[in-house]
Amino acid sequence: MFSSQCQSSYWLRLQDLKTTYQNATSAGVKRELSGRALELGLHLQQMGRYQEAHIYLQAAVDTADNSLQRSRALVARANVEVELGRRDLAQQAYDEALGASPDSAETAISVGLNRSALLTMDAGKQGMFGQLQLLLQRIEQLPDAENKARYLVQYTVQVKRLGGSLPQLAPVLAQSLIIAQKVDAKYLQVEILDQQAQWMEDLQRHQDMLQISDQAILLLQQIDAPELMISIEARRARVYTRLQRHDLAIKSYQIAVRYIEAIRQDIPVSYSQGRSSVREMIDPVYLGLADALLTGADALDPAAKTKLLFQVRDVVEQIKQNQLEDYLGNRCSTLSNLSATTAYAPATALKLNKGTAILYPIIFPDRLELLLETSEGIARHRVDITSNKLIQDVNAMSSALRAQQSFQTLSRRLYKVLLAPLDSTLQGQSIETLVIVPDGALRLLAFAALNDGKQFAVEKYAIAISPGLRIIAQQVDAQIKGAPIARKVLLAGVSEPGKVVDRLPEDLVDQLLQTDDLNVEEKRGKAARSRALQSRQLFGPSQSNVLTEPNSTEDMRAISNKLKQILRLDGVSTEIQSLEKIISAKSILNVDFSSRNFSQQVRSGEFDIVHVASHGIFGSTADKTFILAHDDVITIDQFQSLLSADQLNKRPLDLLVLSACETAEGDDRAPLGISGAALKAKARSAMGSLWPVSDIAASQLMQSVYQNYVNRHMSKAQSLRLAQLELMQQKSFVHPNFWAAFIVVGNWQ
Fold first, then answer.
1. How does pLDDT run across 657-707, given as a tens digit for each residue?
2. In which band, very low, low, confident or very high, does the pLDDT at 247 lie, cut at 50, 70 and 90?
3. Where is the signal peptide (predicted)?
């Protein structure tokens, strides 16, 4: 489905290893089978596919032909247990490895070094230093070989983690480099030089760092190691920036970016123990490049400056793609959409209609940069506010809106920072639609609720959100000519959940029951009946063990009934009935909204709009994002499998509406779930809410949106804007909590 774009060199190597393993299985040669399984498991580990790696590494253990082969497989499996967060199982496997080869010095060293990474500070630094010192003595007794050099490097990593100093470790690193040179292990030599260069950067010994990097680059010209080139060049770029050598910083960042793009599909989305490769390695390079490019922008002539700003925009677009890939846990999910984007071309102006502007806010530690692109060109505005202060204000504003608290001061302050610098341009060019590509915490912000002291932003502009113009095809080059399209709508809702309550994850069930301290009916009787799922606690650690193991069928039935009460959505039936009165639609409610029937209806290709009125949460990652059908949980990944069909490829959904879903509070990654849902459902755009909204307000707003979009053929952004303006005129709903939560994501037309 994703074509050759996702068949990287790692993927191709994986297929070769699987074929070799299958051949060994057929041949039945035990020794060869274990070796092939080990090789395959290590490759999968390198790709970040730890569950699969575990399967093959266990096979390597089970088919080992001798004790040394078994111990190596056990150490490898133990390392994967660590990646999976199963430390107890890792310790057991390390013990088994030692037991399998009690006389092997290398097994003892390997286990000792790997196990030291698991030790906590509870044992005290001195005790840990002592254990590592004993390991160093054993390493030094080994004959000079590549493994010995690697053990020495691993030793320095562990000692540095404990606070070891350069004078203490420099001789060990130097020894490892000499051995690596002696055995002509060039890749290992570069790894050692990379570590030495990092020490020099940490100590701000910039010239020493640059000299070491030069040595590494000479070696890299002789081997294929792009991942090391990325590390070396990114570090050089950081140091050049500190030395005010911005031209050299740009050059090094561009080299690093070129290598990232060359091996993008080979870089695991997740690193060790769930760490993100995007947040730790990829995004800092792109953000550093954007910073370096902007530093010299004002000194350029207008034509050169414009070209440079387009370059910066392209860098930001790539960052947005990185972040959505990180959220979805799959690089190919976004790549499959890039070829469909007609409006985006690198380093050139977008084909924007007059009256439309694209805003890229870029958060740097010391400032905020605003890139604004319109049909007349691109401009840059710098705002002197630290990232910490901006994020603090955004989080406070978001919390105030969720809780219906005072927001006016924060609203005016954020308008002054984010929109006031653009007002003259927006008004001078008669901008009607403002499309925002938010950065970080700004994804949590309801821009519609920002106020200039007289008006809300939504009173001036129709506001839409884009995850990036490269990601979801916007088709912004021209409005569709000719007669308005008659939109066909599928309305799917769950007011009273069914068997789905028995399929919820145990931790979610536990936390739902914990949050239900008040009587359900008492909460439902409050004036503003909210669709909240208590998202603040849904994915945090459990606070107590409220949910005990059910002892009988009767206990299970009681838990199910209570969950059905908690998850009931009284306003959904009314919402669907009211929409049926104003648009031509097919409805599937409660038992008819099974995951199977939902899939069949959408895959028929009959509908342009799919409206889902059911509980859902957008969490920090795709696997914590879901909606509830009547009978089952539908994860964001299942959107792709449930809704895949030739009919949808020929006629993609125009709009996916999620009227009762919410984003996890305070998590700036959660709103990416709305974009991810649209992407997985092959929808041109989506509409969702940043926080739970009262039943009455949500129902009224949705009726207005459909009247405007389906019946009056307005754009999605304008349809939402007019619905928000209509709602805020009512005394009961004047607070932005009721009207500002909903956002249009993706195609705004």
1. 999 887 777 788 888 888 888 888 888 999 999 998 888 999 999 999 999
2. very high
3. none
Secondary structure (3-state) at 536: helix
CA distance linking residue 710 with residue 479, whole number of Å? 16
pLDDT of amino acid 448: 98
Residues 6+ apart with CB under 8 A from 688: 618, 657, 658, 659, 661, 663, 674, 677, 742, 743, 745
- pLDDT tens-digit series, residues 133-185: 999 999 999 999 999 999 999 999 989 888 888 888 999 999 999 999 999 99
In whole angstroms, what separates CA 547 from the centre of its chain?
Answer: 31
Contact 613, 494 (CB under 8 A): yes
Contacts of 218 (CB under 8 A, 6+ apart): none
Distance separating alpha carbons of residues 616 and 629, to the nearest angstrom: 10
User: What tens digit of pLDDT does each residue of 588-608 get?
Assistant: 999 999 999 999 998 888 899
Please choose, from the candidates 255, 323, 315, 310, the residue with its C-alpha nearest in 3D space to the C-alpha of residue 291.
Answer: 315
In the predicted model, is pLDDT for residue 520 greater than 70?
Answer: no
**Are residues 529 and 570 in contact, defined by beta-carbon separation less than 8 angstroms?**
yes
Nearest to 688 by CA among 704, 711, 700, 672: 672
Enumerate the CATH 3.30.420 domain ranges in the chain, comma separated: 340-465
CA-to-CA distance for 445 and 460, rounded, in angstroms?
A: 17
Number of Cβ within 10 Å of residue 211's Cβ equals 12
Q: Which of 722, 742, 728 is nearest to 432 (CA)?
A: 722
Q: Amino acid identity, residue 512? A: L
What one-character-per-residue DSSP string does 264-306 give? GGGS-SB-GGG-BHIIIIIHHHHHHHHHHHHHTGGGS-HHHHH
The encoded tokens of residue 9 equal: 């060199």
Architecture in CATH of 340-465: 2-Layer Sandwich (3.30)
* Topology, domain 1-118: 1.25.40
Distance CA 389, CA 239 (A): 26
| DSSP SS3 for 542 | coil
3-state DSSP call for residue 357?
Answer: strand
Distance CA 390, CA 58 (A): 49
| Distance (Å, whole) CA 652 – CA 646 | 10
**Positions of CATH 1.25.40.10 in the chain:** 1-118
Virtual CA dihedral for 151, 157, 158, 161, nearest 10 degrees?
180
Residue whose entry in the numeric block shows the structure tokens 């994002």: 625
Cα–Cα distance list, 612 to 269, 489, 575, 587, 590 (Å):
30, 11, 11, 10, 11
CA 547 to CA 515: how far, in whole Å?
12
Q: Which two tokens stand for residue 114?
A: 């790997």
Q: Look at the alpha carbons of 87, 92, 97, 98 in this order and tell me if their dihedral is positive or negative.
A: positive
Q: Which amino acid is at 239?
A: V
Greatest Cα pair distance in the chain: 84
Structure tokens given for 379: 């401009």
Is pLDDT at 432 greater than 60 in this prediction? yes
Q: How far is CA 668 from CA 286, 395, 683, in A?
A: 19, 9, 23
Helices vs strands, H then E, count in the chain = 33, 15
CATH of domain 489-746: 3.40.50
